[in-house]
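Q: Sequence in, structure out?
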Amino acid sequence: MDLTPSPLLLALTVLLTTGALPVDSPTASAADDAPAALARLIDESWQFHLREDPLFATQAGDHQFDDRLPELAPADIERRAKATQQFADRLKAIERAKLSPADQINFDILARQFADSLAAHRFKMYLLPITNRTGFHVEFPELPREVPLETVHDYENYAARLREFGRYADQHIALMRQGVVEGFTLPAEVLRGYEEPLTAQIVDDPARSLLAAPLQKFPERIAAADRERLSKLVLTAIAESVVPGYRRFLTFMRDEYVPKARDSVGAWALPGGREFYRHRVQHFATLDLSPAEVHAIGQGEVKRIRGEMQQVIERVGFKGDFAAFVEHLRTDPKFYADTPEQLMKETALVLKRIDGELPKLFGKLPRTPYGIREIPAYIAPQTTTAYYFPPSGDGTRAGFYYVNTSNLKSRPLYEIEALSLHEAVPGHHLQIALAQELTGVPTFRRFTGFTAFVEGWGLYSERLGLEMGFYQDPYSDFGRMSYEMWRACRLVVDTGIHDLGWSRQQAIDFMAENSALTLHNISTEVDRYIGWPGQAVAYKLGELKLRELRRRAEEKLGPRFDVREFHDVVMSEGAIPLDVLERQVNEWLARKAATSK
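A: Exactly. Output:
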């Protein structure tokens, strides 16, 4: 999805989604049977999650805490970890064998999340709360698009959240300052341009802040007198909390953090780094694979895809080698839009064509719509080509596919089909919207995501374009292959950097030699892998598992195989770990076999 919240909030979300109960929460009584005990745990964990992470609560459609931001003081982090351990102990006391198949899925997901969250705490992930392109400082200006702003009370909540920002920034500073002391910092190599997202929020006139946007047009139901009062509340909060908070964070980064950022780029250099990286690979992949195994899988995939790309070069009659063809793609103006408007229109046309093909491959489609937007200018130079932002849990906001219209010479038109299939439909929007619309599962499952499933599905969706009639232009098909190669290269590069000691330049050179990505995109991507160890391996590993399961179904069912039914089975439980998915598909195949006798 390439939507990358800060590592701290990711760790917080893991701790909370897994049901970190307050320390004084009553435990399940011995009289509870297994299903009742699990149901109680799930309900208590969800409510605690909403209280502890107000930003997540808003996203999930619960508006009890719309006036708050998370508390990130060390005592809060330790309290959540202690509560998570208590909750994990409660889960272990439940006899899994006495649960229904549906509850066994809930049990398995919780067990994995508990283990991952406790490991994240043990490795002190909270001391790395931002990356070179993500974090609270980048995400906060998007708040007006992510909260309800329909009533007077909504605006009062919004102003209250803005007033909390100064404290929120200071707590991040305190964590990062402790990270400097303990040797947990970002690499200096990837911190170039860190100032831009910060200085964009430090304004002399609060009315010029991005966070003042809701004052431009109030809902008609809000009276003029209220508008004046609410405007004053919001502008005062921006002037007295938001701008000073950003200014303090900028000063901290400039004077303390960046000068002491580590020289190394790999996670191996962190305290306990190699064990930490192995954990992150298994966390993101939801598979028991070592970094060495992932590296070997990547090398094999790179070799295979490279052969397919060579066939396209020969098909278009290009006279030259692979490097020359890639250089042609990177430099010929015909492959690039002249204006942001042209890029957005080309994208919209592809999306509309995709929409018409979806019923051929899916029996169930989401009710929630999606839209497209440009990535905000203040972060566009540092971020990826595109990303997806999910719909709100209360159904009041659609999902959005964000397109990067900066530096147009790095946004080739031949990539639009693959990119759109991944980020919108049948990729992230279809999968995430269907998950949020699930019935008959606990609420936490509708908002739980495992990267290998989510991103594996996105990459699998790019290949589905072949079945939907896309990639008729060989250059577009080469773009698809280049995107697949990009994800295969990640397996090699991520493990190379974080386990084998590769330099940033080694990683850039490997990707430049094997993909048609522009050099700008390659450098920003490599910096992303450096800043977020392990996440990049999930895409290809997830896609390979999905393709393996589909091949198994095709072979076992033969002419009875229905791709629409297969996809509906894959989507039926939301985003789940790959081992759980494999078990679900195997059980479906067993049922199909039993009914054919």
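The two ends are 42 Å apart (CA to CA).
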